[in-house]
Amino acid sequence: MRLVLLALAAAVGGASMVPAATAESAPVRGPIVQMFQWPWESIARECADFLGPKGFGAVQVSPPQEHVVLGDKGYPWYQDYQPVSYQLKSRRGDREQFASMVRTCNDAGVEVYVDAVVNHMSAGSSDASGPGSGGSTYDKYDYPGVYSDADFHGCRRDIGNYEDKWEVRNCELVGLADLATESEHVRNTQIAYLNDLVGMGVSGFRVDGVKHMPPEDVGAVFGALQNVPGTGARPYVFQEVIGDSTTTAGEYTGNGDVTEFGYYGVVANAFRDGSLAQLANLPERMSLPSDQAVVFIDNHDTQRSSPILTYKDGVTYELSVAFELAYPYGTPQLISSFAFDDADAGPPAEADGTTKAASCEDSAWVCEHRRPIIAGMAGFHGAVQGTDLVNWWDNGGGQVAFGRGDKGFVALNREGGELSQTFQSSLPAGTYCDVMSGELVNGSCTGATVEVGEDGRFDAAVAPNSGIALHVGAKL
């Protein structure tokens, strides 16, 4: 979590007509969707009713541990990233509700990844002595029964120079008490917390603020986790690293996957500007190989501090997410968020600051994952896993099309005129549902259909600022 993100370079280059992307294995068949600030009971309901049936692979949930309560600031979203203990009682629910959510999502075929805050505790101005969301009292550097003064680094000032790696890893991020993650006591405390979650069925972690910890500290904590019960799998770990000239994403790949922040700059700018052809050789422009990268169009930080495209950009945003789910680079991470105008605003809340139930019928909850284009492309992503990029086509500007082996094909049009074209695919002959406009239900398509010939060719007219997507799982 960065309350102030560094500016990200988003320069765009020329397109290549040669497909350059090779598929890699994802941790789950469907995409990860960050259910930002959703309460536990609402996530459980959404896993069973929508996410599982539509082919989403995992939910990333907000930090579940006790946090500060900033009522005088209107209960902002970032209070959840200031832990005061590791008891499972946040504004989204308690331990029992969390455990029930994990069971329900797992039963629906949706894994649960927890946003893990291990770099720091609370800031000095954060309602200095509590109580926290679970009733605990505390002071900065003194969290009774958890940490004392000796468990924090001695540089007790904000990071002043991001070109000094020692400062970045030992001084304080916006006043947050910086844990001495090299300490055996700190590591063992965090390992116990994380293993408690794994024991409840949590399948992985998004690790917050990783560049503020040495790679070996992160590895010592997350490398000590138990296997996930029932599956025997290692917990999936992906680390938030906003790379710069001092800290590179590649420094942390030995611990797990890493967020590729360069991706959203390149892809979101291309869709915003209608310059899609230059995405042909996208992997060559990234800092990480596909099998180590987690990619996104927006997340809760970029939405607020460095937005390019967000839910506020309508179909242009949806098409960029469709590309993310179709193109074989990285593990896609989506977001389902709440509406905001104030960048500090928290989720819809009761008078005491606890989060209201999330409902996609309530406009306060954006529910990007339920938008038809995005929901349809979740199934596309699952259907084409393990296939390579084939049959790339572009017009040199804002119109592109490409296939994923013999499993899927997508065409995207970000120009003002219709894209009318005979496309060459590698799909088997037959009638396909366009999953951007509908789905296959009881043997028929609820949206448009496309007829693919024996030679894999088909004719299509793609309206301005729209797309079509075909895959073998939605074939009549």
Summarize the structure.
This protein has helices at 40-54, 95-107, 165-170, 184-199, 215-222, 261-273, 300-305, 314-326, 372-383, and strands at residues 32-35, 58-61, 111-116, 120-123, 176-178, 204-207, 236-239, 257-259, 293-295, 331-336, 389-394, 399-404, 408-413, 419-424, 430-433, 440-441, 444-445, 449-452, 457-462, 466-471.
Description:
The protein has 2 domains: 32-383, Glycosidases (TIM Barrel, Alpha-Beta Barrel); 389-474, Golgi alpha-mannosidase II (Immunoglobulin-like), CATH 2.60.40.1180. It is 21% helix and 19% strand. It has helices spanning 40-54, 95-107, 165-170, 184-199, 215-222, 261-273, 300-305, 314-326, 372-383; strands at residues 32-35, 58-61, 111-116, 120-123, 176-178, 204-207, 236-239, 257-259, 293-295, 331-336, 389-394, 399-404, 408-413, 419-424, 430-433, 440-441, 444-445, 449-452, 457-462, 466-471. β1 (32-35), α1 and β2 (58-61) form a beta-alpha-beta unit. The radius of gyration is 22 Å and the shape is globular. 50% of the residues are buried.
